[in-house]
Amino acid sequence: MLEVKNLNVRYGGIHAVRGIDFNVPEGSIVTLIGANGAGKSSSLRAICNLVKKTGNVAFMGQDISKIPTKDIVKMGITMVPEGRRVFSDLTIYENLILGAYTRKDKENVKKDMEWVYSIFPRLKERETQMAGTLSGGEQQMLALGRALMSRPKLLMLDEPSLGLAPILVRDVFSVIKKIHDDGVTILLIEQNARMALKIADYAYVLETGTITLTGTGEELLKNDKVLKAYLGAV
Amino acid sequence: MTVGLFFQHLVNGISLGSLYALIAIGYTMVYGIVRLINFAHGDIIMLAAYFVFFGVGMFSLPWWLAAVVSIALTVLVGIVIEKAAYKPLREAPRISVLISAIGVSFFLENMGLVVFGGRAKAFYVPPIFKGVINISGVSITSLGIIIPIISAILLIGMVYIVNHTVTGMAMRACSKDMDTAKLMGIDVDGIISFTFGIGSALAAVGGIMWALKYPQIHPLIGIMPGLKCFIAAVVGGIGNIPGAMLGGFLLGLGEILLVAFLPGLSGYRDAFAFIILIVILLFKPTGILGEKVAEKV
Ligand SMILES: Nc1ncnc2c1ncn2[C@@H]1O[C@H](COP(=O)(O)OP(=O)(O)O)[C@@H](O)[C@H]1O
Ligand SMILES: [Mg+2]
Predict the structure, then answer these.
(1) Do B185 and A88 touch (CB under 8 A)?
(2) What pLDDT shows up at residue B138?
(3) B246: which of A161, A208, B211, B285 is 20 to 30 A away, CA to CA?
(4) Cβ proximity of A119 and A150 under 8 Å
(5) Ligand 1 pocket residue status of A16, Cβ below 6 Å
(6) Which domains does chain A show, CATH number per domain?
(7) How far is ligand 2, taken at its centre, from the CA of residue A32, in Å?
(8) Is residue A146 within 6 Å of ligand 1 at its C-beta?
(9) pLDDT, mean of residues A56-71
(10) Whose CA is nearest to atom 12 of ligand 1?
(11) A209 Cα nearest atom in ligand 1
C-alpha cells in the first residue's frame, strides 16, 4: 500500500534519514522502532511532505513524493504527530470536525463522530470543553479520534504512547488494535519497542537514519540485538 | 457640558471607535495566523478610498457600485501582497518579513504619490451621508450613525465566521499550529489568503467610511489611522479579535472625549493613542485581553 524508496531527509548539515526503504502492505500493522533521534519522526513527516526530502514514496501505486500534504490527506493517509498536537483552544468537538475537514459527506461524518465517541466515551462527555483542558491520555485519545474522522486508509502514528502512564499505554495499544480490526492499515512509530513489536506484523529498526534490522514482530522480539538495545535485556 | 452635548461626543466616539475596530481586526487576524504586523494594512485604507474616487470620477460608477468594486479590488491587493511579499519569506526569520512589510507600505505610499499625485483630492460624499439628525438637542450626522451600524454588522459577521464556521475553525487551527493544520488536510495557503482577504475587506470598508468622514484624500491618509489601529490591536492584545474591537473603541472614544473634556489638549489628539499604548504596555504587556503566549518556535 505504501512503498518508500531511498528516502532522505536533511536539515542543513544533519543527514537525519539516510536512504531508507520500507513497505507497508495493505491491512497490516508495520512498526518503525528506534531510539530517540534515530530519524523516525523525520521519516513520517517526509512521507506527508511536511519536511523537504528526496526519494520516492508511492501510495496505492501512485507516486506521492511531490504531492502537497493536504492532498496526501485527501488520498487517505492521516498522521497523528508526535506529542498529540491537539488544537488546545478549540473544543473537542471542533477538533474532531477539523479531522473530517477534507470530507464532503456530511451525513457520514456525523455517523463517524458517533463511532469515534463510542471508541472514546470520555470525549463525548467533554465535547464542548477546550482540548487543552484534557489530560495527556485523553489528548492522545482525541488525537487518535481526530485522525479517524478523516476515515484514513493508512494511519501513521508517531509515538502514541509517549509520556503516558503504563496503564494508559495499554489502552492506547488496544485502541490501535481495534482501529486495525476496523480495516485501517497502520504504520506505527515507537520507542516502546516491546508493545509495538507485539502487535506488529512487520518491523523495521532504525538507527541514526539507517534501517539496521527487519523482520516480523515476533522475530524481532526474540532478536538478541533488539533485546539488548531496545527491550532492556542484559 | 450639557447631557445633550455629552451624548453627541459619545456618539462621535463610538463612531470613530467602530472605524478603528474594523481596521484593527485586520492587523490582529493577520498577526494571529502568520505572526506578522502587516504594515501595509494602513495603505490598504488609502487604496480603497482612491478606488472609489476613480470609480466615481473616472468611470462614472454610482457610488455604491464604486464601493463594491473598491472592496473587491482591495481584497485582491491584500491577497497579492501576501503572495508576493510575505509568502516567499514564510520560513525566513521574522525580522525579514517585518522589513518586507515595511517595504510594501513604503512602496504603496510612493506609488500612490506617483500615480495619484500628492495633492489632496475631494472625495465624493453622497447626500444620504450628509443629513443631520436632531434628537432632543443632540445633532448627529447620518454618517455618524451609519458608520457604527455597518461596523457592528461586519464585526458580528466576522466573529460568527471565526467562531462558528468550519473555515473559522481552520483559521484558529492554522493560527496555533500550521503543520498539524496541514495534517488535517487544511489548505493552509488558502486559509492565509482568506485571512488577508477578509482583513483587507474590513479595512476597505473602514477606509471608504474614513474618506466619507474626512473627505480629503491623499496618498498618505492611511498612515495615521493605520498606526492607531495597529495600536488598538496591540492595546487589546494582538492576535485576539475581541481585543482588537475593544482597543478600537477605547482609542476612538478616548480620543473624542479627551478633546471634548480638555479642549486645551486637542493638539495632542493623535498622541492619545500612543499614551494609551505606553500605559497599557507598562501594566499588561500582552494587551488587555491578550494571553501569555510563548514565542512560536
Ligand atoms: N527541524 C529540525 N531541524 C534540525 N534538525 C532536526 C529537526 N528535526 C529533527 N532533527 C534532527 O534529526 C534527527 C532525527 O530526529 P527525529 O526524526 O525527530 O528522530 P526521532 O523521531 O527518531 O526521535 C535528530 O538528530 C534531530 O536532532
Ligand atoms: Mg520522534
Answers:
(1) no
(2) 80
(3) B211
(4) no
(5) yes
(6) 2-230 (3.40.50.300)
(7) 11
(8) no
(9) 94
(10) A16
(11) 14
pLDDT at residue B294 tops 60: no
Phi, psi of A87 (to 5 degrees): -80, 100
Report the Cα B225 to chain-centroid distance in Å.
8
Specify whether the CB–CB gap between A14 and A52 falls below 8 A: no
CB-closest option in B172, B179, B185 to A101: B185
ipTM: 0.92
Distance (Å) from the alpha carbon of A166 to chain B's nearest alpha carbon: 26
State the closest ligand 1 atom to the C-alpha of A158, by its place in the atom list counted from 1.
21
Q: Dihedrals φ, ψ of B216, to 5°?
A: -120, 115
pLDDT band at B296 (very low <50, low <70, confident <90, very high): very low
Residue B243 has, within 13 A of its CA and on its CB side, a CA count of 23
Exposed, middle or buried, A88 (CB in 10 Å: 0-12/13-18/19+)? middle
In angstroms, the CA A156 to CA B88 distance is 30
Q: Is the pLDDT of residue B295 over 50?
A: no
Residue carrying C-alpha cell 489502552: A171
Contacting residues of A for B179, CB less than 8 Å apart: 50, 81, 85
Task: Please say whether the beta carbons of A46 and A53 come within 8 A.
Answer: yes
Q: Output the nine-digit C-alpha cell for A205.
A: 529498526
- Classified by CATH at the fold level, domain B3-283 comes out as ABC transporter involved in vitamin B12 uptake, BtuC (1.10.3470)
Cβ contact A179:A144 at 8 Å: yes
In A, minimum Cα distance to B175 occurs at A87
pLDDT band of A165, cuts 50, 70, 90: confident
Nearest to A77 by CA among A9, A11, A151: A151
Report chain A residues whose CB lies below 8 A from the CB of B166: 97-98, 101
Domain map of chain B by residue range?
3-283
Q: Name the nearest CA neighbour of B170 among A126, A67, A70.
A: A70
Point out the residue among B172, B176, B184 whose CB comes nearest to the CB of A101.
B184
Q: Which-ligand-closest: CA of A43?
A: 1
